[in-house]
Amino acid sequence: MFGLQTETSYKFTDYRAKLRLDYVSPPQLGIGVDQFGTYVGGGVGLVWSDLLGYYDLTTAVQTSSRLKDTAAMVSFLNDKHRLNWGLIAERIPYIIGGFATGYGTVSGEPAEIDQEYIFAEYDYQLGGIVAYPFNTFRRFEISAGYQYSDFSSDIRTRSYSLFDGTLIDDSTQHLPAPDSLHFAYISPAFVYDSSFFGATSPLLGQSYRLQVSPQIGNISFYTVLADYRRYFMPVQPFTLAFRILHYGRYGKNAEDQRLYPLFIGYDTLVRGYNTSSFSAQEVSSDNGDLFNRLLGSKVIVANAELRFPLFKVLGVGRGFYGILPIEFLSFFDAGLAWSSEDKAWFLKGGQRKPVYSTGIGLRMNLFGYVIAGVDFVHPFNRPYKKGWYFEFSFQPGF
After folding, report:
1. How far is CA 208 from CA 133, 138, 189, 238, 303, in A?
2. Residue 235 belongs to a domain with what CATH number?
3. Long-range pairs, 136-140, Cβ under 8 A, ≥24
4. Number of structural domains in the chain
5. How many CB atoms lie under 10 A from the CB of residue 86?
6. Containing structural domain, residue 241
7. What phi and psi, each to the nearest 5 degrees, are found at residue 52?
8. Residue (of 255, 279, 277) closest to 338 by Cα position
9. Taking all residues of the chain, what is their mean pLDDT, rounded to a whole number?
């Protein structure tokens, strides 16, 4: 018996080497007009990847009318093999400022004099990362690179005639600024993550990260990070979430004045103490002790949340989240920041005490683009007995 033999040739296309646009972040554009002129700003982020997900290229840019305040980032990640590696280059500006107005005489004419103070830090970073996963949950990673930070300080003065409002003078004075910083860094870290993420936050499992980062240059110090999180579901669909985090700068130049102090009042750390909620009276020289307690070179934060899918509990809709992916939560936050000059209460000679807050809130996943949240929070340690107030965020739960 004879069989018919044929030859068939196959042509394979290597899609792994072809990057395609995979995700575009929602573009942002803002336009404003006031007595100082027209302002335009916006930003967008793009993510490219190959068909099999081995390579990822991410780019992002954000700019404004002040082109020198443009932020940009580009990163590449290769996880084709078990040993993953990536590269990143970025320029990030940090801008703070103030405003004052008064009256005087300019060029012999009565005028309103407006002054705008702008202090800027521009960080440039070039680095890389290598990660080796031991299994699904554990990995070791190490990042290294170089960072350069430049500073500027300016006062822009505009004078307007009190007779007809015309601009008399528009000048900028460059003030002395701190010397630039530059240092190389290396950051080995051990990471464990078995958490299961829901629509707005993790629901089950645990994660932790242990990291030490020496930084050597015209200043030398090292940072320590220990971040532990645990999630329980004693009764469906209720989750108990806990986190304890320590981050600190140690070493010879850990408290150099050119380094931004660490701040625990962010809505991702201790809610109820964000900077925009403080009045001038609260941070005045006579009453500014609380605000100073939120700053330091070392911080420790503890959080506890009870979270559950709101519509699931109400019985509205099917699935774990019901008709909408909205999570209800109640929380308790505590945090402590300290420095070598103002030590924590548990150190010898220390008197710095923690701050606390509690509250309830909602988180919603907006079509996979962003997680928006609102908290009704009560800070326990604000002066003048500041009561409950609303705080908004665009972050997933810890």
Report:
1. 15, 10, 10, 22, 14
2. 2.40.160.50
3. 136/194, 137/192, 137/193, 137/194, 138/190, 138/191, 138/192, 139/190, 139/191, 140/188, 140/189, 140/190, 140/191
4. 1
5. 19
6. 187-398
7. -95, 0
8. 255
9. 88
The token pair at 387 is 């009561």
Cα(73)–Cα(58) distance, integer angstroms: 8
201 lies in some domain: yes
**Cα distance between residue 110 and residue 114, in whole Å:** 13
Q: How confident is the model at residue 1 (pLDDT cuts 50, 70, 90)?
A: very low
Q: Mean pLDDT, to the nearest integer, of 30-55?
A: 73
pLDDT band at 29 (very low <50, low <70, confident <90, very high): low
Residue 174 maps to a domain: no
Q: For 298-348, how does the pLDDT look when each residue is reduced to its tens digit (9 = 90+)?
A: 999 999 999 999 999 999 988 899 999 999 999 999 999 999 999 999 998
Q: Does the predicted TM-score (pTM) go above 0.90?
A: no
Q: Is residue 137 part of a domain?
A: no
In a domain, 284, yes or no: yes
Q: Which amino acid is at 307?
A: R
Phi, psi (degrees; rounded to nearest 5) at 202? -65, 150
CA–CA separation, 70 and 135 (whole Å) = 40
Question: Cα–Cα distance between 163 and 305 in angstroms, integer?
Answer: 59
CA–CA distance, 26 with 213 (Å, rounded to integer): 34
The mean pLDDT of 12-41, rounded to a whole number, is: 60
